[in-house]
Amino acid sequence: MALATYARVHGYDAEVCDLAGTPADQLTPDLLPDADVYGLSIYTATCYLAYGFVSCLRQAHPEAFLVAGGPHASALPEEVLAHGFDAVVCGEGEEALVAILDKLARGERSSIPDLIRARPIADLDALPFADFNGLCDMRRYHRCIAGLPAMALDSSRGCMNRCRFCNSRVMERGCWRPRSPESVLTEVLAHQEAGWQAFRFNDDSFLADRERAQEICRLLEPLDLKFRIFCRAEDLAAPGVCEALVRAGCIHVGVGIESLSPTILALMAKAQRVSVIREGLARAHEAGLLIRGFFIVGFPGETEATITQTLDTLPHIALDEATCYPCLPYPGTDLAVRPRAYGITWIDPDYSKYIQAGHDRCTGYVMATETFGPDEVHGWRDRFLQAFDTLGVAWCDQLGVVR
After folding, report:
1. What does the pLDDT profile of the chain (403 residues) look like in tens digits?
2. Is residue 245 part of a domain?
3. In this structure, is residue 132 part of a structural domain?
4. First-residue to last-residue Cα distance in the chain
5. Domain carrying residue 80
6. CATH number of the domain that 96 lies in?
7. Are residues 101 and 217 located together in one domain of the fold?
8. Are residues 186 and 263 in the same domain?
9. Is the pTM of this model over 0.90?
């Protein structure tokens, strides 16, 4: 949506076609209108579908320019390029896409590099708001918050942290960059005028700058909204933060806990103490926020002792919902780039298995180390799921408040 809007603002006729969830046997070029340029966002778990689709697209439109972007393309540009694309954009694509379109418009196709390393966009306030009204029908989607259809938006890009497992780093978006509170308010007001009252902030960490986040909350407070965020536990522990969120209409926070073992948190470079995790979740609970915790099992260095340590601490933290998935060495992460440094002995090359939490709690077990393999990780995860059930912690979106 952001790319299409940016292209339109710069004078190009752009449309969006969402192919997510389309069965493989129905992925045909007939789904797309005729165009001079086709851009595909490539994700690891569905890259094989994208490769098959682009092959058909190339046959149907041999003269079209095909460009790939997204996390998998940013992590493995050479691999993606080899599947029939004319160019691959690594990183944020707005400026890079328009540069490609400008060259094509001038008849300079041969001068377009096949691999483009896009620079992170510094001034996010200068970007146009994604045109959800003009480019798609958001009412077709099913995300809800407190029973209300939810609109998604970003108030920032990037992350200040360097967790070693994190696939968000693959986009090489550089340091964390915020939009101004006033810009966020303006976009929310535009959506509210169009009838939206619930919002999902996609930011990796909405509370990365606590003062800015509280200012956004102050501006949103009079609007009678419902929204959810993702954040780190230590930011919830800061005085006044949870209360400001609740006053503004936040009802749900997603928190990357990962582990309650100090050993594993240190190996992950999580830069977080268990005591602070407990404090942050307690403050959020006391303020009335619903809390979803995300856990990872099987990070290199995991043992029966670290699993037991987390499970023993689990009853003492405030959680309403939780999700647990195995450590997945996504392409581009340090785990995938330097496996020997982590004692990793095997990584499954079948990317279709790289699913964190799919239907019916399904996931992928795709890694082995010198001390454990998929069977051990499977057993550890099962113990987490049993613990959630015993403690009355709902799986993911089972409460129905957000989905």
Report:
1. 999 999 999 999 999 999 988 888 899 999 999 999 999 999 999 999 999 999 999 999 999 999 999 999 999 999 999 999 999 999 999 999 999 999 999 999 999 999 999 988 999 999 999 999 889 888 888 889 999 999 999 999 998 888 899 877 776 555 889 999 999 999 999 999 999 999 999 999 999 999 999 999 999 999 999 999 999 999 999 999 999 999 999 999 999 999 999 999 999 999 899 999 999 999 999 999 999 999 999 999 999 999 999 999 999 999 999 999 999 999 999 999 999 999 999 999 999 999 998 888 999 999 999 999 999 999 999 999 999 999 999 998 888 888 7
2. yes
3. no
4. 21
5. 2-117
6. 3.40.50.280
7. no
8. yes
9. yes
Q: Are residues 242 and 390 in the same domain?
A: yes
- On the CB side of 226, how many CA atoms lie within 13 Å of its CA? 18
Pull the structure tokens for residue 134: 């003009």
118 alpha carbon, distance to own chain's centre:
19
Task: Please tell me the distance from the alpha carbon of residue 297 to that of residue 265, in angstroms, as a whole number.
Answer: 11
Check whether residue 159 and residue 299 sit in a common domain.
Answer: yes
Q: Looking at the structure, tell me whether residues 215 and 104 fall in a common domain.
A: no
The encoded tokens of residue 370 equal 């010198």
DSSP H helical ranges for 225-363: 233-236, 241-248, 262-267, 274-287, 304-313, 334-337
Q: Where are the beta strands (DSSP E) in 33-77?
A: 37-41, 65-69
Among the listed residues 284, 153, 155, the one whose alpha carbon sits nearest the alpha carbon of residue 217: 155
Cβ(6)–Cβ(94) below 8 Å: yes
- Note whether 106 and 150 are same-domain residues: no
Same domain, 222 and 281: yes
For residues 368 and 183, what is the distance between their CA atoms, to the nearest angstrom? 45
Could you tell me which of 204, 193, 221, 210 has the C-alpha nearest to residue 154?
A: 204
The CATH number linked to 282 is 3.80.30.20
d(CA 269, CA 283): 24
Looking from the CA of 167 toward its CB, the CA atoms found within 13 Å total 18
Phi and psi (nearest 5°) for 296? Answer: -120, 130
> Residue length, the chain?
403
- CA 139, distance to chain mean position in Å, is 21
Number of domains into which the chain is organized: 2
Which of these, 153, 230, 151, 228, lies nearest to 197 by C-alpha position? 151
Is the same domain home to 97 and 148?
no
